[in-house]
Every structure is written in structure tokens, then in C-alpha cells.
Amino acid sequence: MKRNWESVVLKAFGGKDFRLTVLANEPINARYQRLRLNDGGLLAACGVHPTMWVRLWFDRDGKAHQRAFTLVDPSPELGEFSLEFALHDGTAARWAQAASPGDTVDATVQGSAFVVPDPLPARWYGVGDAASAPALNSLFDTLPAPATVWLEYAHDEEREFPLRARSGHEVVWLPRRDGGAHLVSTVCSALSAAPEAFYWVAAEAASTRAITKHLRRTLGVDKAQVNSLAYWRT
């Protein structure tokens, strides 16, 4: 598969390429598929951090097509990690459903740079959806309670995704309405500024921008307390 201009740009900005090999493939539920992969040396070369993501490259009608996915349960010792795919009518989802042990896929590491707050926050807030649920799970594993997390869902099956919330981690599911406006209004109405809090926002691009703007400009939250990244676009 011939790479496109995106690959050239990523390489110019320090992107590192690896070839992953499928070890196992299993459904999570009707909306998600989980693949375990050999990392091709990725973890040893790049390290690992919560919410870490990689870009996978697929062939779509003879053209390079890339999508980003969060590493799940990475094991540097074994050189393995899992990826979880939300299933819909897309190139990546079709590949994930059909993948068998021994199949390979190219990956690029560039742009994933989350740093765990130090000191750990006394409280944190998260905003996400089906696409960012695996990343939120890594935060549930890392950051202490209390926490409140709002998760937007478009299909009822998305609410069955296995979350790793623990005691003191409150999860609020919200249906996607009015192009994400329901999520934005609900979250912005509930949030308040607190000097000891941490805010992690990773939803659809317009929703992520609106919530981040509310935090920074309306509530005056310091930029060091906010980590935001659009996970997809309408």
C-alpha cells in the first residue's frame, strides 16, 4: 500500500512506524471488537502512558487511510497490547471484524503525549463517548476518585461497553441529541472551576471545542488543568 501525504508529514514531525501482528480477535458486544496484537517493538521504542494512541493504516480502494486507536492493557514485557474498535460501516471496523491471527497492520506513533498530573488531582472530570471510552478506562486505572465522567452514546449497545470505573467514579450516560448540543449544555451546566481539579475532554470535535472554551474562558480554568483532544468529526 502506497502511503499518502499524511504519512510524509507524520514522518517529518518525528513519527515512528511499526508493523503490528494480530494475535487474537474477539467481540466485546454487538458494537465493539477487541484485537490483541504483537507490538512489533513499539512499546520498547516509545514507552507507554495513559490514553496512549497510535495511528493505523488501512487500504481503502487502493489509497492509504488512517485512523487513531487507544492502546488497551499494554504489556511492554510481552510486547503486546489490545485495540478496541467501535463497529460501524467503515474501513477500520470492517478490517477489525475480519482480522485473523497472523494478519498485519502498519502503525505510526506521533502526537500522543498525555502526562499524568503531578501531584495527582484531588478530583477529576471526564467527557467522552464511544470513541474515547478505551482512553477513559486508562484514566480510571490511573487517576484516583472522586471523579465525574459524562459519556455520550448514539446506540444503546454502547452503554454496555465494559468500563473500569471504581468506587467514587461516577459515570453519567447521555444520549447524543441535537448534534452534540445536549452533551455540551449538560456538561457546561454541571462543571465548576476548582484549583485542585483536572479536566479531560475527548468527544466529537465541535463538542470538545465548546466544552474546552467554557472551561478556559467562562470558568477561567488554568490551561495546565485541562487536557482536550477531538476524537472524531461529524
Detailed description of the structure:
- The chain is of the alpha/beta class and 234 residues long.
- The chain has two domains: 5-109, Elongation Factor Tu (Ef-tu), domain 3 (Beta Barrel), CATH 2.40.30.10; 123-228, Rossmann fold (3-Layer(aba) Sandwich), CATH 3.40.50.
- The chain has helices at residues 5-12, 42-46, 91-98, 133-142, 181-190, 205-218; strands at 16-29, 32-38, 53-60, 63-70, 72-75, 80-86, 104-109, 123-129, 147-153, 169-175, 197-201, 226-228.
- Strands 4-3-7-1-2-6-5 form a seven-stranded antiparallel β-sheet.
- The protein is globular, with a radius of gyration of 18 Å.
What's the structural blueprint in terms of helices and strands?
Layout: H1 5-12, E1 16-29, E2 32-38, H2 42-46, E3 53-60, E4 63-70, E5 72-75, E6 80-86, H3 91-98, E7 104-109, E8 123-129, H4 133-142, E9 147-153, E10 169-175, H5 181-190, E11 197-201, H6 205-218, E12 226-228
Parallel strand pairs: 8-9, 8-11, 9-10, 11-12
Antiparallel strand pairs: 1-2, 1-7, 2-6, 3-4, 3-7, 5-6
Strand order of the largest sheet: 4-3-7-1-2-6-5
CATH class of the largest domain: Alpha Beta
Average of per-residue pLDDT values: 92
| SSE series | HEEHEEEEHEEHEEHEHE
| Strand residue content | 35-45%
Radius of gyration: 18 Å
Overall number of structural domains: 2
In the CATH hierarchy, the architecture of the largest domain is 3-Layer(aba) Sandwich
- Number of distinct beta strands: 12
Unreliable residue stretches: none
Distance between the termini: 27 Å
